[in-house]
Amino acid sequence: MSELRISDDGNLVLDQSEAIIWTTNTSVSSNSTVAVILDSGNLQLRDASNESNVFWQSFDHPTDTWLPGGKLGLNKVTNQTQHLTAWKNSADPAPGIFSLEIDPNGTSQYFTLWNMTTRYWTSGIWNDKIFSNVPEMTSNYIYDFQYVSNEKENYFTYAVNDDKIITRLVMDVSGQIKQSTWVATQQSWQQFWFQPIQQCQVYALCGAFGRCNDIVTPFCNCVKGFSPKSQSDWNLGDQSGGCVRDTPLACQSSSPNSEKDKFLKMTNMRLPVNSHNLSGVGE
Protein backbone atom coordinates (compact mmCIF):
# COMPACT_ATOMS: atom_id res chain seq x y z
CA MET A 1 0.00 0.00 0.00
CA SER A 2 1.37 3.41 -1.02
CA GLU A 3 0.74 6.79 0.56
CA LEU A 4 1.57 10.37 -0.41
CA ARG A 5 1.73 12.52 2.71
CA ILE A 6 3.40 15.46 4.41
CA SER A 7 5.94 14.25 6.95
CA ASP A 8 6.62 15.66 10.40
CA ASP A 9 9.45 17.82 9.02
CA GLY A 10 7.13 19.40 6.45
CA ASN A 11 8.39 17.54 3.37
CA LEU A 12 6.19 15.75 0.88
CA VAL A 13 6.82 12.00 1.09
CA LEU A 14 5.77 8.99 -0.96
CA ASP A 15 6.09 5.74 0.93
CA GLN A 16 5.16 2.11 0.47
CA SER A 17 4.55 -0.06 3.52
CA GLU A 18 6.21 2.69 5.60
CA ALA A 19 9.37 2.60 3.46
CA ILE A 20 10.19 5.97 1.85
CA ILE A 21 10.24 5.74 -1.95
CA TRP A 22 10.57 9.45 -2.70
CA THR A 23 10.69 12.77 -0.84
CA THR A 24 11.02 16.45 -1.68
CA ASN A 25 13.96 16.42 0.74
CA THR A 26 14.20 20.17 1.09
CA SER A 27 14.80 22.56 3.97
CA VAL A 28 11.43 23.70 5.29
CA SER A 29 11.34 26.73 7.59
CA SER A 30 7.70 26.30 8.52
CA ASN A 31 6.03 23.73 10.75
CA SER A 32 2.87 23.91 8.64
CA THR A 33 3.06 23.11 4.92
CA VAL A 34 0.55 22.20 2.22
CA ALA A 35 0.89 20.55 -1.20
CA VAL A 36 -1.05 22.20 -4.02
CA ILE A 37 -1.37 21.38 -7.73
CA LEU A 38 -1.80 24.59 -9.72
CA ASP A 39 -3.84 24.88 -12.92
CA SER A 40 -0.52 24.93 -14.78
CA GLY A 41 0.23 21.39 -13.55
CA ASN A 42 2.93 22.62 -11.19
CA LEU A 43 2.94 20.77 -7.85
CA GLN A 44 4.06 23.07 -5.05
CA LEU A 45 5.01 22.47 -1.43
CA ARG A 46 4.48 25.78 0.32
CA ASP A 47 3.80 27.53 3.61
CA ALA A 48 0.19 26.98 4.67
CA SER A 49 -0.11 30.58 5.87
CA ASN A 50 1.85 32.26 3.05
CA GLU A 51 1.32 30.89 -0.46
CA SER A 52 4.18 32.95 -1.88
CA ASN A 53 6.64 31.06 0.33
CA VAL A 54 7.31 28.03 -1.89
CA PHE A 55 9.78 25.45 -0.56
CA TRP A 56 9.69 23.04 -3.51
CA GLN A 57 7.95 22.79 -6.88
CA SER A 58 7.80 20.14 -9.56
CA PHE A 59 8.59 22.66 -12.32
CA ASP A 60 12.13 22.79 -10.92
CA HIS A 61 12.44 19.00 -11.15
CA PRO A 62 10.98 17.86 -14.50
CA THR A 63 10.85 14.16 -15.32
CA ASP A 64 9.88 13.24 -18.90
CA THR A 65 7.41 16.11 -19.41
CA TRP A 66 7.84 19.86 -19.95
CA LEU A 67 4.69 21.91 -19.36
CA PRO A 68 4.06 25.57 -20.25
CA GLY A 69 5.52 27.81 -17.55
CA GLY A 70 8.21 25.31 -16.64
CA LYS A 71 11.81 25.75 -17.61
CA LEU A 72 14.69 23.62 -18.86
CA GLY A 73 18.18 24.94 -18.45
CA LEU A 74 21.47 25.14 -16.61
CA ASN A 75 22.23 26.61 -13.21
CA LYS A 76 25.65 28.22 -13.66
CA VAL A 77 26.23 28.45 -9.91
CA THR A 78 25.65 24.77 -9.07
CA ASN A 79 26.31 23.45 -12.61
CA GLN A 80 23.11 21.44 -12.34
CA THR A 81 20.74 21.03 -15.25
CA GLN A 82 16.99 20.83 -15.52
CA HIS A 83 16.51 18.21 -18.20
CA LEU A 84 13.96 15.70 -19.43
CA THR A 85 14.53 11.96 -19.08
CA ALA A 86 12.37 9.40 -20.87
CA TRP A 87 10.67 6.56 -19.03
CA LYS A 88 12.42 3.19 -19.08
CA ASN A 89 9.50 1.84 -21.12
CA SER A 90 5.83 2.62 -21.69
CA ALA A 91 4.82 1.07 -18.34
CA ASP A 92 7.81 1.91 -16.11
CA PRO A 93 8.46 5.55 -15.12
CA ALA A 94 11.96 4.74 -13.89
CA PRO A 95 14.64 6.81 -15.72
CA GLY A 96 15.38 5.53 -19.21
CA ILE A 97 18.37 6.06 -21.48
CA PHE A 98 17.17 9.04 -23.55
CA SER A 99 17.25 12.65 -22.37
CA LEU A 100 16.93 16.26 -23.51
CA GLU A 101 19.15 19.00 -22.09
CA ILE A 102 20.35 22.50 -22.90
CA ASP A 103 23.90 22.85 -24.21
CA PRO A 104 26.15 22.85 -21.11
CA ASN A 105 28.66 24.98 -23.04
CA GLY A 106 26.28 27.92 -22.98
CA THR A 107 24.85 28.05 -26.51
CA SER A 108 21.10 28.49 -26.95
CA GLN A 109 20.25 25.02 -28.22
CA TYR A 110 19.07 21.65 -26.95
CA PHE A 111 20.57 18.20 -27.44
CA THR A 112 18.98 14.79 -27.21
CA LEU A 113 21.33 12.26 -25.65
CA TRP A 114 21.70 8.52 -25.29
CA ASN A 115 22.82 7.43 -21.82
CA MET A 116 23.63 11.10 -20.99
CA THR A 117 26.76 10.84 -23.15
CA THR A 118 26.11 10.53 -26.89
CA ARG A 119 24.34 13.35 -28.74
CA TYR A 120 22.19 12.27 -31.65
CA TRP A 121 20.05 15.36 -32.40
CA THR A 122 20.23 19.10 -31.85
CA SER A 123 17.49 21.72 -31.99
CA GLY A 124 19.89 24.11 -33.67
CA ILE A 125 20.66 27.59 -32.34
CA TRP A 126 17.77 29.74 -31.12
CA ASN A 127 17.46 32.95 -33.16
CA ASP A 128 14.91 34.67 -30.88
CA LYS A 129 12.06 33.24 -32.95
CA ILE A 130 12.70 29.58 -33.76
CA PHE A 131 15.16 26.73 -33.37
CA SER A 132 16.91 26.31 -36.71
CA ASN A 133 16.28 22.54 -36.84
CA VAL A 134 12.58 22.71 -35.93
CA PRO A 135 10.88 23.92 -39.14
CA GLU A 136 7.42 23.44 -37.60
CA MET A 137 7.99 26.66 -35.66
CA THR A 138 7.88 28.81 -38.81
CA SER A 139 4.13 28.74 -39.54
CA ASN A 140 0.98 28.94 -37.39
CA TYR A 141 2.99 28.12 -34.29
CA ILE A 142 0.88 28.30 -31.15
CA TYR A 143 3.78 28.30 -28.67
CA ASP A 144 5.80 31.25 -27.43
CA PHE A 145 9.34 30.19 -26.45
CA GLN A 146 11.66 32.51 -24.55
CA TYR A 147 15.36 32.21 -23.80
CA VAL A 148 16.84 33.69 -20.63
CA SER A 149 20.59 34.01 -20.07
CA ASN A 150 22.22 35.77 -17.14
CA GLU A 151 25.14 35.31 -14.75
CA LYS A 152 23.27 32.67 -12.75
CA GLU A 153 21.48 30.55 -15.34
CA ASN A 154 20.59 29.78 -18.94
CA TYR A 155 17.13 28.38 -19.62
CA PHE A 156 14.15 28.20 -21.95
CA THR A 157 10.53 28.53 -20.95
CA TYR A 158 7.41 28.61 -23.07
CA ALA A 159 3.74 29.60 -23.02
CA VAL A 160 0.72 28.89 -25.20
CA ASN A 161 -0.93 31.67 -27.18
CA ASP A 162 -4.36 30.33 -26.20
CA ASP A 163 -4.88 29.52 -22.51
CA LYS A 164 -7.59 27.02 -23.43
CA ILE A 165 -5.04 24.78 -25.15
CA ILE A 166 -3.61 21.93 -23.08
CA THR A 167 -0.16 20.93 -24.26
CA ARG A 168 2.99 19.11 -23.24
CA LEU A 169 6.47 18.37 -24.57
CA VAL A 170 7.65 14.85 -23.76
CA MET A 171 10.97 13.01 -23.99
CA ASP A 172 9.46 9.79 -25.29
CA VAL A 173 10.65 6.22 -24.74
CA SER A 174 11.23 6.14 -28.51
CA GLY A 175 14.09 8.63 -28.09
CA GLN A 176 12.09 11.35 -29.84
CA ILE A 177 10.88 14.61 -28.31
CA LYS A 178 7.18 15.13 -29.00
CA GLN A 179 5.08 18.28 -28.67
CA SER A 180 1.40 17.37 -28.35
CA THR A 181 -1.94 19.07 -27.70
CA TRP A 182 -5.00 17.58 -26.05
CA VAL A 183 -8.05 17.16 -28.31
CA ALA A 184 -11.07 17.09 -26.00
CA THR A 185 -13.51 15.85 -28.64
CA GLN A 186 -11.33 12.80 -29.27
CA GLN A 187 -10.05 12.46 -25.70
CA SER A 188 -6.52 11.94 -26.99
CA TRP A 189 -3.18 13.67 -27.56
CA GLN A 190 -2.42 14.94 -31.07
CA GLN A 191 1.22 15.33 -32.05
CA PHE A 192 2.11 18.82 -33.26
CA TRP A 193 5.75 18.04 -34.04
CA PHE A 194 8.45 15.56 -33.13
CA GLN A 195 12.21 15.20 -33.63
CA PRO A 196 14.23 13.44 -34.89
CA ILE A 197 11.70 12.90 -37.69
CA GLN A 198 13.27 9.60 -38.70
CA GLN A 199 13.01 7.08 -35.88
CA CYS A 200 16.23 5.38 -36.92
CA GLN A 201 18.18 8.58 -36.31
CA VAL A 202 17.86 7.81 -32.58
CA TYR A 203 21.21 6.49 -31.39
CA ALA A 204 21.37 2.77 -30.49
CA LEU A 205 17.57 2.53 -30.52
CA CYS A 206 17.54 -1.19 -31.27
CA GLY A 207 20.53 -2.21 -29.16
CA ALA A 208 23.24 -4.75 -29.95
CA PHE A 209 22.59 -6.94 -33.01
CA GLY A 210 19.37 -5.05 -33.68
CA ARG A 211 18.53 -3.20 -36.87
CA CYS A 212 16.20 -0.29 -37.48
CA ASN A 213 13.92 0.28 -40.47
CA ASP A 214 11.98 3.55 -40.80
CA ILE A 215 9.65 2.12 -43.42
CA VAL A 216 8.01 -0.66 -41.38
CA THR A 217 6.68 -1.04 -37.83
CA PRO A 218 7.87 -2.09 -35.42
CA PHE A 219 11.01 -0.18 -36.35
CA CYS A 220 13.36 -2.58 -34.57
CA ASN A 221 14.05 -6.21 -35.31
CA CYS A 222 16.95 -8.58 -34.83
CA VAL A 223 19.40 -9.62 -37.52
CA LYS A 224 19.14 -13.20 -38.74
CA GLY A 225 20.13 -15.74 -36.10
CA PHE A 226 19.30 -13.45 -33.17
CA SER A 227 16.23 -12.85 -30.96
CA PRO A 228 15.28 -10.05 -28.53
CA LYS A 229 17.18 -10.26 -25.26
CA SER A 230 13.96 -9.36 -23.43
CA GLN A 231 10.76 -9.75 -25.43
CA SER A 232 8.74 -8.17 -22.61
CA ASP A 233 10.88 -5.00 -22.79
CA TRP A 234 10.50 -4.90 -26.56
CA ASN A 235 6.71 -5.20 -26.22
CA LEU A 236 6.78 -2.11 -23.97
CA GLY A 237 8.82 -0.03 -26.42
CA ASP A 238 12.29 -0.52 -24.93
CA GLN A 239 14.56 -2.28 -27.43
CA SER A 240 17.79 -0.92 -25.97
CA GLY A 241 18.73 -4.34 -24.57
CA GLY A 242 19.20 -5.51 -28.13
CA CYS A 243 19.36 -9.09 -29.32
CA VAL A 244 21.16 -12.30 -28.39
CA ARG A 245 22.30 -15.27 -30.46
CA ASP A 246 19.82 -18.10 -31.00
CA THR A 247 22.73 -20.55 -31.16
CA PRO A 248 26.16 -20.10 -29.50
CA LEU A 249 29.16 -19.79 -31.78
CA ALA A 250 30.99 -23.06 -32.36
CA CYS A 251 34.04 -21.67 -34.16
CA GLN A 252 36.40 -22.67 -31.35
CA SER A 253 35.11 -26.22 -31.28
CA SER A 254 36.50 -29.17 -33.22
CA SER A 255 33.04 -30.69 -33.60
CA PRO A 256 31.39 -30.95 -37.03
CA ASN A 257 28.99 -28.16 -36.01
CA SER A 258 31.85 -25.66 -36.09
CA GLU A 259 31.67 -25.70 -39.88
CA LYS A 260 28.21 -24.12 -39.68
CA ASP A 261 29.54 -20.78 -38.38
CA LYS A 262 29.80 -18.22 -41.16
CA PHE A 263 29.54 -14.54 -41.98
CA LEU A 264 26.23 -13.36 -43.42
CA LYS A 265 26.09 -10.48 -45.88
CA MET A 266 23.66 -7.74 -44.79
CA THR A 267 22.38 -5.52 -47.62
CA ASN A 268 20.83 -2.04 -47.57
CA MET A 269 22.19 -1.28 -44.10
CA ARG A 270 24.19 1.57 -42.62
CA LEU A 271 27.12 0.67 -40.39
CA PRO A 272 26.73 1.46 -36.68
CA VAL A 273 28.26 4.62 -35.24
CA ASN A 274 31.86 4.02 -34.09
CA SER A 275 32.08 0.80 -36.12
CA HIS A 276 35.45 -0.93 -36.51
CA ASN A 277 37.13 -2.72 -39.41
CA LEU A 278 38.95 -6.00 -38.78
CA SER A 279 41.38 -7.69 -41.15
CA GLY A 280 42.78 -11.19 -41.13
CA VAL A 281 46.48 -11.92 -40.69
CA GLY A 282 48.38 -11.20 -43.90
CA GLU A 283 45.67 -9.02 -45.45
TrEMBL record:
It holds the Pfam family S_locus_glycop. SUPFAM superfamilies: alpha-D-mannose-specific plant lectins. Transmembrane segments: none annotated. GO terms for biological process: recognition of pollen; response to other organism. GO terms for molecular function: kinase activity. Keywords: Disulfide bond, Kinase, Signal, Transferase. Residues 1-58 form the Bulb-type lectin domain. This is Serine threonine-protein kinase. The lineage of its organism: Eukaryota, Viridiplantae, Streptophyta, Embryophyta, Tracheophyta.
